[in-house]
Specification:
Elements (H helix, E strand, L loop, with lengths): L1 H18 L8 E4 L2 E4 L13 H6 L2 E11 L3 E6 L3 E2 L12 E4 L4 E6 L5 E10 L2 E11 L2 E12 L4 E9 L2 E11 L2
Antiparallel strand pairs: 1-2, 3-4, 3-6, 3-12, 4-5, 6-7, 7-8, 8-9, 9-10, 10-11, 11-12
Length: 179
């Protein structure tokens, strides 16, 4: 009975690891002179799309944002749940980004995403983990440095740095495709 439990345990570990897209090899279990060998090899599919294709294939909506303004104002936003941002009177559930393949795009900002703002964007030369994005707000343009960018078919995650007036703002943000 113990050997069955060990085998089931080894398989459950292997299946857990397979769902997290790693190569899995469950090895040998010996119990009472009986040899049980389980070997599972898994290779997770990777996207054949370029980073530009992944970025531009969806309209992206904010799912989570954690950050700080200056040295004193921490904030957090979780879609349909928490909003301690300075924009607490706004509906960040409506904020959306559209990135076009030609380096332009639109940010739908303001209450309920009611205000379209034009933007330009570009990956850093040879580095798809960094994006420079300038949003042309009606009050004037703001340039955002997006670093540690990770793009998959289902998430867009980045650290955002910018200066608003004379105040430094930094946040970690995760976006998901608009359904």
């Amino acid at each position: 009975m113990a050997s069955v439990a060990l085998t089931v345990f080894a398989l459950s570990i292997a299946l857990f690891q397979m769902t997290s897209c790693k190569k899995v090899e469950a090895q040998t279990v010996v119990k009472n002179d009986t040899l049980y060998i389980t070997k599972i090899d898994s290779v997770c599919p990777t996207s054949t799309l370029s980073d530009t294709a992944l970025l531009t294939q969806h309209t992206w909506q904010c799912n989570q944002l954690i950050g700080q303004i200056g040295n004193t104002v921490p904030f957090e936003y979780l879609r349909n749940s928490i909003n301690t941002t300075p924009y607490a009177t706004s509906d960040l559930n409506g904020e959306k980004y559209i990135f076009n393949t030609n380096g332009t795009g639109t940010l739908y900002d303001g209450p309920g995403g009611s205000t379209p703002e034009n933007l330009t964007w570009a990956f850093a030369p040879g580095d798809a983990t960094s994006i420079t994005m300038t949003v042309n707000y009606s009050t004037g343009p703001i340039t955002f440095a997006l670093s540690f960018v990770e793009i998959t078919a289902g998430t867009l995650t980045f650290t955002q740095n910018y200066v608003n007036g004379s105040t430094y703002v930094m946040s970690q943000q995760t976006y998901v495709p608009v359904p």
